[in-house]
Amino acid sequence: MAHEPSSIPLGALDAARDAAIEAGRIALGYFRHGGKTSAGVSYKEGGSPVTEADLAVDRFLKKRLTDIAPAFGWLSEETADNAARLRRRHVWVVDPIDGTRSFARGDKDWTVALGLVEDGAPVAGFVYAPVQDVMYEALPGGPALRNGMEIRATGHATVERARIAGPGPILDAMQAARTPFQRMPRIHSLAYRLVHVAEGSVDGALASGRAHDWDLAAAHAIVAASGAVVQTTSGQPPAYNRPSTVHEPIVAASGALAADLARMLAAGPVARAAGHKDAIAGL
After folding, report:
1. Which of 26, 176, 212, 233 places its Cα 20 to 30 Å from the Cα of 76?
2. Annotated binding-site residue? 222
């Protein structure tokens, strides 16, 4: 079957970039460097926090992006899911504040993550770090950019001496297995962690088996445009806009390094630390 041509409205992605920057400014209104946010904080089922700022940014982006492209679906961490998105070819996939815990305590490693998915694959992404005023982006067929300048992943091919960022338990397990890598400081926003691969400041980034579409889609587009890959432990790119938004453990790195890291995350103590379903089941 021939692939249907893309039908992204003219100017929609430029407007989406502007919306991500404006969303960051809204969030900064509640942010306190090194201190507790001025926003009210509540907790979802399962204990993850959500602030007034998350909800304000979510409302702004939903209205702005729906106005930009009324035919597109919508999926956001802070909006009740609507199965109508499954019938849409294009879906905005949004995390209004990725790294809410960091945001709430006054740390700087949080972002606004805005991705566009087409037929289940990410085709454009914007990851904006408001505290640093840094925009990472990728448009269909274009390079990965950081504040308008092209960026590329390192292409580091082996775990040996690779600079790896990821959740503490995974890196602890890798170190316990005497894996010869360089452990990088924790980056709490997963989208921000992944785009560090795109800019070459880390060689590989890892995510446990609890990431959702909104944590990944925007950064996935940027990493892919930088020459690296985002893949699951089975070696496949994650698919988006499915009934379930939850993913198995994820690796972002150059192709060869990604394959090695994926194998590590799929078996043994590292897999258990990553929350791999087969490891949890004892398989």
Report:
1. 233
2. no
